[in-house]
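From the pipeline queue, job 12 of 40. The input is one protein chain; the requested action is below.

Action: predict structure.
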Amino acid sequence: MANRLTRLITGGLGWGLPLFLVVLPLQTRWLAIPQSLNGGPWEYGTVSVYGSELLLIILALAWIWWYRQQLVKPVWPRSVLIVAGALLVWELLSIMWAGNQLAAASLARHTAEAMVLAVMLSSGAVSQLRLAIGLVISATPQAVVGWWQVTAQMVPAAKWLGLAAQWPAVAGTAVVEVGGERWLRAYGAFPHPNMLAIWLALGLVAVIWLATQAKTASQRWLVYGAAMIMVPTLVATFSRAGYIAAAVGMLVVLVRVWQQQRFNRVVGLTVGIMAVMATLSVALWWPILTTRVDATSRLEQQSIDQRLVQYDQASQLIQRYPIGGVGLSNMTAAVVTNLNATPPAWWYQPVHSLYALPVVELGIVGGLLWAIFLVTIAVTRYQSAWVGLGAVLLAAGLFDHFLWSLYPGVMMLY
C-alpha cells in the first residue's frame, strides 16, 4: 500500500510541478486584506492568497512524503541553504520594525513559498525536461493572448482568470504614445507587460534548451512553433528590460550549448526562426519601437524621470534606515511617511532594481545577505543547464522591482 501511494505521489509531483509553472501567470486571487495608501489601493500592502499558492501547498505536502520515502536523499549545497535561511530569517525579523507589518509578513510568506518551490524543483522529484516543457506550455498561450491584446487594443476583464480590464485611453494603463495616439502593450495574464516580457524571455531560453533534446518530428515542431509564437509577442510587449533580458539569457544558453557540443541542426534552425520572427516583428512595430528606444516622447521621458525620483527616494531612505531598512514591502509606505505624502496612490512605486530595493527594505545587513545569496547561487549553479534562466532574471533585475516585490515575480526569481 505504501509503495503504491509513493508511486502515485511521485507521479503527481512529476506532473504537478510543471502544472504550477503553467498556472503561475494566472492572477486569480482572494484579496484577503485590501490596504490603501494615500486614499487609493495599495498593491504592495494588500494581503492576497493566489490560486496557484493553493496548488503549491498541495505539492509541498506531497513532496514531504516523497522526500521521506527516498533511500538516497537529494543533497543541496550547504552554503546555499545557510545563506537562504539567514536571508529569510532577516526578512521575518524586519516585520518587527516595518511600518506596515501586514505588508511585510505577506511578502515574507511569498518568499518562503518561493524557496520551498526552489527546493522541490531542484530535488529531482521532476525531470528538467518536464519542467522545460511546462515552462514552454505556460509561455506559449500567454504569447497568443498577449498578441491578441495588442492587435485588439484591449484587455477585457476576466474575474476568474485574475484579469483586470486595460484600455489604452485610461490613465495608468501601460501604453506607448506615438503621434498623440496611445498604443496598448501586451499584458498576457500578468498585471504588467514587463512581467509578460520576462516570462516569454524565460520561455525562449527553455525553447533553445529543448531544441537540444528534440528527437522526434513532433518534438521539433513543438520547439519551432513555440519560437514562432513567443518572439512576436515579446516584441509587442515593448519592454526594453524584456529585450535586454531575453538577449542576455539566450546568449548565455547558446554559449553553454556550444561549450557542451550540443549545438545541432535543430538548435540552429530554432535560432534562425527566432531571428526571422524578430525581424518581421520589428518591421511591423517600427514606429512604436523607435519611440521606446529614443525615449524622448512625453510618456517615455516621464517614465525615466520617475525612475530617477525612485533612486533618489531609495538613497534617502537608506540614509535614514541604514541597518535594518524600512521593512519588507514597505518602501512605498515609507516614502509617504518620510518623504512625500502629496501624490496619488498610483504614483508610488518601489525603486526599479532587484539590487537596490533589498537594501532599502532590509538595510545594509539584508542587502549584504542578498548579495551573498546571489553570489553563492552563481558559484554553485553556474554549470547548471538552467544558467540561461538565471541570466534572464539577473538582467531583468537591473530594470525592474517585481522579482522582489510581487508574488509572481518572487516565484520566478527563486
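Job complete. The radius of gyration is 21 Å.
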